[in-house]
Amino acid sequence: MGREIAIQQPQLPAFSMGDIEKVATAIARGGLFGSKDPYAVLTLCMLAHAEGQHPAVVFRDYDLIQGKPAKKAEAMLRDFIGSGGKVTWNRLDDECAEAVFSHPQGGEVTINWTLARATKAGLGGKDMWKKYPRQMLRSRVVSEGVRTVCPNATSGLYVPEEVRDFAPDTTPSDTPPTPAAKRARDLKPERTAIEAKPDPKRAKAEDWLAWLRDEIGNAGGEVDAVRTIFDEAGPTLTKLAKEYPDLHAEAMKLAPSPDAQPGLALGEETVGQKKGAEIKAQLESAEDAEAVETIIADADKHRDAFDEATLTSLEIAFDQARKRFETAEGVE
Asked: Lowest-confidence range among 129-138, 264-273, 282-291?
């Protein structure tokens, strides 16, 4: 008898169409993820709502690339794993990305993308492929793998990296062209006692901030790549700080912290932090005082890999482990 997989249906938030429209309009006016078209943002908010999510998750999970919706690779992978899928990475570097995707209802498949394949497809010479080949290859693998064994996790969309590489659609159509949607800043605001005059320079600065967010997203959150982006954006950030301090503050929220480790993704643990967590787990499972001292002696060999915070937390863990067995011996 086969194992049945129970799929839990999402519980929709209590949002009316009017509520969703208000959220979409606020997002578009803020330009927080690259689009000021309230109708395009509304479409993504409705998609999020239909999948049982709060409309505001469009910031986290989706992008609008030249007016086309896209679902981020991280969001696809998260939904895939959340639905019971598994992924094992065989290789991930600037030349090749290969992973095995498996799902109880979709089987198993191995997907690989190489830089040679991307170049043959006319992609390798593009700017983002030159700057971040590993991230671009990874996104292609995630999209193809998830789409193959668990298409529901893609929400029927492609990743932003794929959408950017799509050639313009030149196929003739009998459908009349849709009138161009108005941008959020072109919509007439509600009349107030004092009408605010439009500021073209601020609108341009907001567009640049949206571009910055997009570039950081394309960099995959890697500390060294994000720092390079901020280094190149230095003159613009200086000017932004003088003219629009609020936008400058928003931009600096995206910068990596001074103690972020190069070569890692933002928020990723260092080797020392991971080793520290392993040592704490070993201490918790130690069966006697002798085992504790062996673990502590081994940890001392890796002292140079630990940062100050990890060392402090380990010292506390050492003391607690020793006291645990001292107390036990006293009771005996």
From this structure: 264-273
